[in-house]
Amino acid sequence: MVALPQKVNRANLLRSRWGSEVEQTGEYSVAADRSAVWTGLNDPEVLARCIEGCQSVSKVSDDVFEASVKAKVGPVRATFSAAIALTDIDPPSSYLINVAVKGGPAGFAKGSAEVILEEADGYTVLRYRVAANVGGKLAQIGSRLVDSAARKMADSFFAAFEREFEGQDRRADGASGNSR
Amino acid sequence: MAKEQGIGAAVKRKEDLRFITGSGRYTDDLNQPGQLYAAFLRSPYARADILDIRSEEAEALEGVVAVLTGVQMAEDGLGDLPCGWQVKQKDGSDMVSAPHPPLAVQAVNYVGEPYGIVVADSIATALQAAELVTTEFRELDPIVDLVLATDSERIHADVARNLAYDWELGDAEATDAAMQRAAHVTRIEITNNRLIPNAMEPRAALGIYEAATEEHTLYTTSQNPHLERLVLSAFVQIAPEHKLRVIAPDVGGGFGSKIFIYAEETAVLWAARRVGRPVKWTASRSEAFLADAHGRDHLTTVELGLDAQNNFVALRVSTRANLGAYLSTFGSSVPTYLYGTLMAGQYRTPNIHVEVSGVYTNTSPVDAYRGAGRPEATYVVERVVETAARELGVDPADLRRKNMIPPDAFPYETPVALVYDTGNYEASLDKALALADYVAIAERKAEAAGRGKRRGIGLACYIEACGLAPSKLAIALGAGVGLYESGEIRVNPTGNVTVFTGSHSHGQGHETTFAQVVADRLGVEFDAVEVVHGDTGRVEFGLGTYGSRSIAVGGSALCRAADKIIAKGSRIAAHMLEAELEDIDFADGQFQVRDSNRSLSLGEVAFASYVPADYPEDLEPGLSEKAFYDPENFTYPAGTHIAEVEVDVDTGVVELVSFIAVDDFGHVINPMIVEGQVHGGVVQGVGQALLEHGIYDDQGQLQTGSYMDYCMPRADDVPDLVVDATVTPCPHNPLGVKGCGEAGAIGAPAAVINAVVDALGTNDISMPATPEKVWRALQG
Lengths: 180, 780
What we know:
The complex is a heterodimer.
Chain A: E1 10-15, E2 21-30, H1 34-41, H2 44-50, E3 54-61, E4 64-73, E5 76-90, E6 94-102, E7 108-119, E8 124-135, H3 137-169
Antiparallel strand pairs in A: 1-2, 2-8, 3-4, 4-5, 5-6, 6-7, 7-8
Helix pairs in contact in A: 2-3
Chain B: H1 16-20, E1 36-42, E2 48-54, H2 56-60, E3 64-69, H3 70-75, E4 107-108, E5 114-120, H4 123-132, E6 134-139, E7 163-170, H5 172-181, E8 184-192, E9 204-210, E10 215-220, H6 225-234, E11 244-247, H7 263-275, E12 279-282, H8 285-291, E13 298-306, E14 312-324, E15 352-360, H9 374-392, H10 396-403, E16 412-413, E17 419-420, H11 425-436, H12 441-450, E18 453-463, H13 471-476, E19 485-491, E20 497-501, H14 510-522, E21 529-533, H15 550-576, E22 584-587, E23 590-593, E24 599-601, H16 602-610, E25 624-629, E26 638-648, E27 654-664, H17 671-690, E28 721-725, H18 743-760, H19 771-778
Parallel strand pairs in B: 1-12, 10-11, 14-15, 20-21, 27-28
Antiparallel strand pairs in B: 1-5, 2-4, 2-6, 3-5, 7-15, 8-13, 9-10, 9-12, 13-14, 16-17, 18-26, 19-20, 19-25, 22-23, 23-24, 26-27
Helix pairs in contact in B: 9-18, 14-15, 17-18
């Protein structure tokens, strides 16, 4: 097994003033080359496997996806439907993900995430910056928990996403982490 | 008659046994055969157009009976929820009242506004189905900020500048002139924080429709079931009054929030008729936060002018009141006639002018909450008086005393439309100062400083107008209903007594207090009196309980009915005792021929009235009388509250170390119940001063929508309260009573904040004085 340079895997709270706006940045390293990461990020099947609680992801067109995700934010549990549109696409290095999430009585979230992929030595660094608004029950009783929930989801996504590549490259070495 | 259970006795509350043993009957405890359950579709947006509601998937779910929306409600011809108080603007025109359909039809205007109702065979199914309804909204920018609202887009098409009214009271010219002549003017800006009521029992409704008789029955958590029936019949037109019965059984607290006629209760009854089966709904705590009418939420600038001798010469008040997205049932009256009229406080300020802008915003409607306008007024007056004393370097108690209306000046007509009937403000001030050991505060401050604490003391000398209200005056000022009360007393054939009152008890202990009054008046045992309330099918009419009116108005109605019982009983007794009517005296339950030993008990007379063998020819059988009592004036409870706090300079935590309430409620029927009412009010006032704040963010999302973020006072937030009294009996009602339900919540906020200001040495603090705010203030 190749020793990887020290990786940074974290999501940072940028701003969560007491309100329904959330701003977060994150930086994750994935042990795969940039074009493989890019392809993975655009593959509905990969996404469906990696997003915790994902019921379905379908590609409406090259840059429009629809997803259905079961999620829990503090006391708010619901199946959220997400409409995802990709803009400012610059393969394989960056795009902007625009998301509108609706959870009926559970409330809504809408926002966008700027995603940048950078090639490093034997891995790819993914940086994102997300700004979102939440509303309804999410804001009413979950707002102070949205940040930690989003961070948890991001951690879980990238852990699973990385395993996708471990599976391809080093299936035999018993990489750490739980299988789904 | 057992005097130890009559007027003035601390009788234990008869209702408490069932409350504390879990055998109360609240709306949610009631069930009907074939009953269904409702869940509401609520807006997640503060402002949006409703484009499309797709409910096929929800309707297909097993157990779902119906998904109904505002469109169908409108098709069924149901009317809007009205505002019950028409406020006239400065220019004489009517306030601008936006249409308020019970279920939103085209647009939603606050987060949590209901636009549909799902009816299913279980609560779980109803909630699940509500999740399956997909609603397409067109989001619009919400108008949330109270200051910017009047320069923003219109929330309602017909309301220019989002202004419901621009109202004034008092002589503007004279006040301006006096202010100009003043030797000193104190000016402060005040925020009165938005509060969320949080009654222990959330709102609930059970609607029943009998197709065969077309009878509608609504069990609900109401403070005034007759008003609910009246509004649902006359305005919403859900059913004619004689086909509609509203029952408010045991109700677990209201604090004003259960006065109003809400969408949900209306929709439940309508849905029950639509589906032909009983429908029940009980609000979750989350729904209560969003959709119970909130309280307070004012921005105010106040100026107090004083002459060179420190006499108050002018008071000028300008307030912006947040009314929320729609005018709630009494939302218009709270920041006007229940607020501006109290600006004289306890003082003889000769010139007062108040102007209030009532503003729509995309937030939950705002209406009466314990005190309703009077806590806001007291806060304005007592904060500016306190500030003036500090600016002038005079003792705050002395400045107040100097300007108080003296005891020999009553009746006293204020410059803001009220005539105070009686009072002795210096007496309650003196008593409170003595209890507080006011003269030794410097020593206590020094001792606290040695422990790293800053100690402060604060006064509030409040007055309230209670016993709402003289009907003619109220109607002249815009009220849509009279404000009298009804009472009925039935002496049963066996001599015990059933009392019917239009007042409603939802924690106040009327079943005890009113029984004491009737037992005392009729000379019967306390336990022989049963009080019935809260049912339009049993009580003839009533206007319910709010504004500390129950004993002053409802109790007075019962006194009138008792007088009629005694008058009729005297005629029966005179006939039976073969005496002249003029020779019959009634005392201690006995009709007695004067200067003789011939007498009959009330029970004997009652029996004779129902078995009229030996009975006056010209008299109807039976011994049952009713009375309506319309007060000739408000009552004016007043008093002095003194708070003492210690501030931790490292953490900014404010500890309330002592609270003294000396109140003049006139005569007291049950001192234990009154003390309990003061305790409850004070704790709510302390909650407003130190802990509670309903906050919307700029998207109109409620940030304080649960107990994680909305901080309610707990037992360890308050010290043992010292409650005492002075008494000037009300001169114009038969019991000499004034009302006690709101006083604590009226006096406490100003007293606590004045104490915090004293401790900090800066005026720059707003409610709630949270540790963060106090700490920042301490950093300068």
